[in-house]
Design a protein that fits this description.
This protein is mostly helical and 317 residues long. It has twelve helices and no strands.
Amino acid sequence: MTLEEETTKTEEPNLKLKKKKKKKKSKAKSEKLEKESSSTTKVEQQDGKKTTEANNSDVEANLQDSNVTLEEQEQEEQEEGNLREGQCEDEKSDTLQKRITETMDTIRDVVVLSKSSRRDIWNAFSKHIKLPVACYGMILCMKQRLSTSVFFLNFSKSSPPPMFGLLEKISVRHTDLWPNVLSVYGRSIRSSSSLQSVVKISVCEFIMDRIIHLMMIGCVIPTLSFVVSLENKVDASVIAYFVQRVCVHLNSFSAEFVGHMCAILSIDGVVQSLRLSSGCRHTVLPSIVSMSATNHVSQSVSSQLNTIAHRLRSSKV
């Protein structure tokens, strides 16, 4: 064996020992590092836990503070709301009291005016037309003034009593008072009964024009019923005048309307008065034919209207 071979054999165990030592050192070093890393991680975990706990406690404290703040805010808002409600109630109470006072003052003024003999009484009344109860008082005053025929003394259609202008304003503004307005027209017709025939018919025709105005603003069926009730109370020519005016203003009819018009046309003397009036064939007759053909009209009403139309076409009076 040569010297090199012996040297090599000798060195081999030494190298193995060195490698083992290196392995042990590296293993020990890695274990040390792992321990250090583990301890560092534990410390970090502990620190993180402490930090988390601290953060949680801060969050809880903030939540508590915010809850307190919200409660305080809600309490303040509730107090403000209660204050506003109290103010609103006070304002409503003041407004109500003011309206009551104004209403009482208005009623007092109307009562005083109704007892006065002022010529401009109706103009004075018109200042209080907004209040329904005041208008009702005015209507009572009108009925009282109409209790005698003196009211229509020197009556002229071209310059009628201003009372009727006020009555029309009331009927436009207060639909609930339509029955009361009609009652004034009825009283007007009754109060004209003792007048001379020509003046009486002129007054009644004027009233019929006012009644047609009431129809035009929506009071249709009550007005027709009112005219039906005038049978034997006014001259048939007055009712014929009403029929002519209605046929001029209206061209569409409901079954209920047609039924009432049929009753009006059936009043004794009305058809004869219509035949004597000029323009009847051009206004009334076409309307009656149209009424008889209206949908949902009963057969008896349609038959009556056809008979009336035939009478109007006839040349015999």
